């Protein structure tokens, strides 16, 4: 073998960060040593692995081909090293991306279980919209993702974790709050504040409502659930959010769930990972413990 694990680690870090200087900081190397290792690897392979795009280093076609293979070699090397050091095989860092609902209501319990049973696993958590998590998995930002809804992409493997449902809510002072049932015509005349386009919540809501009401009066779109809850609690708006996000507000009377029989908005929360990802025991551990955590809970949250 003409290349070294150090050179592959440099390549992997530059691919992750898009910067030689940031890769050097991550690997505790000088910038000149990092540049030299990368140049040596490209020379040995006889192919350019990066091209400069402004201040960032972007992968070439060859770099994209090498990336998953380099990651597998580095992961295998880490497991060998930990094994000979007599450490627990399930140790190291995993990058987890999650959309807002699971991040707020489910991930804390999951991290607590991992911390208790596998204390040598470090979870780096990123919280984004569903589309952001998917992009992060595809771009190697995350090793494992947790998203809302379904995805149809051959580059991604999806495994259902659990199910939840969306509900339409208003403030306790809204005229609709006293109604036993709200009609589609009334929804069409209402003022709505919703999650941003691209979020899993918005995709499910749009797919359910647009077949019934083609033109909804959407006044505002926001990324953060607390903003929407406060707007609805204090104003004349309707919103649609996961029940997990509004459950406590309904229980204490600040929000009221509307009965709209025509709307069916159950959805899945799923683990996702790249189809080309090699065996990753840390990701497998998180998935296994996540499924175990949900045993005994309601089928639909």
TrEMBL record:
Q: Classify the source by domain of life.
A: Bacteria
Q: Gene3D superfamilies from the entry?
A: Periplasmic binding protein-like II (3.40.190.10), Winged helix-like DNA-binding domain superfamily/Winged helix DNA-binding domain (1.10.10.10)
Domain spans labelled HTH lysR-type? 1-60
Q: Which Pfam families match?
A: HTH_1, LysR_substrate
Q: Where is the signal peptide?
A: none
Q: Which InterPro entries match?
A: LysR_HTH_N, LysR_subst-bd, WH-like_DNA-bd_sf, WH_DNA-bd_sf
Alphabetical keyword list:
DNA-binding, Transcription, Transcription regulation
Coiled coil region boundaries:
none
Alphabetically, the GO molecular function entries are: DNA-binding transcription factor activity; transcription cis-regulatory region binding
Q: So what family is this one in?
A: Belongs to the LysR transcriptional regulatory family.
Q: What is the protein named?
A: LysR family transcriptional regulator
């Amino acid at each position: 073998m003409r290349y070294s694990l150090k050179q592959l680690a440099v390549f992997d870090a530059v691919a992750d960060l898009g910067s030689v200087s940031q890769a050097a900081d991550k690997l505790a190397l000088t910038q000149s040593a990092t540049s030299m290792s990368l140049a040596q690897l490209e020379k040995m392979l006889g192919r350019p692995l990066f091209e400069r795009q402004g201040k960032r280093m972007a992968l070439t076609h060859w770099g994209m081909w090498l990336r998953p293979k380099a990651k597998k070699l580095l992961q295998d090397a880490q497991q060998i090293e930990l094994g000979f050091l007599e450490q627990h095989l399930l140790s190291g860092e995993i990058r987890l991306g999650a959309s807002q609902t699971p991040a707020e209501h489910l991930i804390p319990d999951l991290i607590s279980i991992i911390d208790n049973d596998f204390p040598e696993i470090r979870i780096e958590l990123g919280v984004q919209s569903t589309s952001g998590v998917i992009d992060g998995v595809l771009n190697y930002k995350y090793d494992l993702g947790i998203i809302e809804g379904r995805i149809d992409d051959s580059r991604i493997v999806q495994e259902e974790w659990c199910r939840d449902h969306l509900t339409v809510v208003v403030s306790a002072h809204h005229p609709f709050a006293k109604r036993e049932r709200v009609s589609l015509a009334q929804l069409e005349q209402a003022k709505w504040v919703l999650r941003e386009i691209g979020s899993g919540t918005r995709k499910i809501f749009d797919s359910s409502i647009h077949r019934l009401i083609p033109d909804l009066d959407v006044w505002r779109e926001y990324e953060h659930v607390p903003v929407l809850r406060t707007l609805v609690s204090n104003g004349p708006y309707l919103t649609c959010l996961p029940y997990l996000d509004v459950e406590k507000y309904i229980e204490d009377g600040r929000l009221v769930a509307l009965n709209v029989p025509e709307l069916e908005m159950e959805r899945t929360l799923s683990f996702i990972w790249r189809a080309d990802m090699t065996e990753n025991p840390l990701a497998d551990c998180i998935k296994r413990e996540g499924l175990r955590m949900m045993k005994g809970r309601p089928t639909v949250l």
